UniProtKB/TrEMBL annotation:
This is Uncharacterized protein. The lineage of its organism: Bacteria, Bacillati, Actinomycetota, Actinomycetes, Micromonosporales. Keywords: Signal. The keyword Signal applies. Residues 1-32 form the signal peptide.
Length: 348
């Protein structure tokens, strides 16, 4: 949704934006120049501007299109799904490398800031799973389709041709329309998602383990600011902890991140060093690897290693996210993460 041509009812959410918009509107222009030119807010003096429409994509199940909102996590949208065939699957799947997969996005109309038929383009992007993915430079477009969106829920399918390895990605969906423009788009994707109801983000990954056979997942943390920042990795079980069933989670930080962590004094909670460049998550509650230094514009990648010692019928869910400042001098906040859905089987 945009800041131009809005009714009085939009004023309350705009007040909530307050100082954040004041600080970020200057970089909105740069973001639009680097991204889609169609996101530019039209001049209010243009007499041909149509009435505002409001198509939105949910960030969480309770999302009704208000912007900004305070729901978390921002990065597990229920309205974005990956399937292996052109028939929509019941539950989102990890894409299969090298073949055509399909992305299904649900567009909802109307939201609280407009009405009528929505006309625009749905664009879907990918990046390495994790946090701090600077917009637009860290994102690669997968596909786009122009569609009308009538009242109700419209499901749009975008083919994903030739999925590259290793097959684990974060996805971003953007609804781009001249009658439903963005509030702003700066480099921080978390702020963009929270303040624009036509942007949604999905970072959900399945980890299907067999006893004694580790699986590795890439994870990236980034700094979208122009100053160096210190960031935390936060590990939070949702429900029963994976470790309680004999599971192990190890973060292989690689030499650069590990050396920076050592230089910071090895700060953290619920963790222990277990090998060269490796830190194991031992807490069955929340755990943290703290104060990882990131230079301006940097987004290093490391690995998470999952292993299991016993099969179980119980599924496990783990949230891993990056906590860091979203603007200079700010306190640490959620900059993005991944929901890992873990199962453990016994190979026959």
């Amino acid at each position: 949704m945009g800041i131009a041509s809005r009714s009085v009812g939009r004023s309350a959410p705009r007040l909530l934006v307050g100082a954040v918009l004041a600080a970020l509107l200057t970089m909105s222009t740069a973001g639009a120049a680097l991204g889609d030119t169609s996101t530019t807010v039209p001049s209010s003096a243009d007499s041909t501007i149509a009435a505002p429409t409001d198509v939105y994509i949910r960030d969480v199940a309770a999302d009704v299109g208000l912007q900004p909102h305070s729901y978390n996590p921002l990065w597990a949208s229920p309205d974005i799904k990956v399937c292996h065939t052109a028939v929509e699957c019941a539950v989102s799947q990890n894409p299969i490398v090298g073949i055509t997969n399909y992305i299904f996005v649900k567009l909802r109309n109307p939201g609280p800031y407009g009405s009528g038929l929505g006309n625009g383009t749905l664009r879907v992007y990918r990046t390495t799973p994790g946090g701090g993915a600077t917009w637009p430079g860290a994102w690669t477009q997968i596909g786009a389709v122009s569609v009308p969106v009538p009242a109700g829920t419209t499901t749009v399918t975008i083919p994903w041709n030739g999925v590259p390895g290793p097959g684990h990605f974060c996805l971003l969906a953007r609804w781009v329309s001249p009658t439903d423009p963005m509030v702003f788009e700066g480099p921080d994707i978390s702020l963009n998602t929270r303040y624009n109801n036509n942007i949604a983000w999905r970072n959900v990954n399945s980890v299907n383990l067999f006893v004694g056979q580790p699986q590795v997942r890439p994870f990236a943390i980034g700094n979208s600011l122009t100053v160096a920042t210190r960031n935390d990795l936060v590990f939070t079980p949702v429900g029963a902890p994976f470790q309680a069933a004999g599971g192990r989670i190890i973060a292989d930080l690689g030499p650069t991140l590990f050396e920076r962590w050592v230089a910071a004094g090895r700060p953290g909670e619920g963790i222990r060093e277990v090998g060269r460049n490796q830190v194991e998550i031992v807490s069955q509650g929340s755990a943290r690897i703290n104060d990882l230094l990131l230079n301006p514009g940097e987004r290093p990648e490391f690995s998470l290693i999952f292993t299991a010692t016993a099969a179980t019928t119980r599924p496990f869910t783990l949230h891993v996210n990056q906590a860091g400042p979203d603007k200079e001098g700010a306190a640490k906040t959620d900059l993005g993460g991944v929901e890992y859905q873990i199962t453990v089987g016994q190979q026959g």
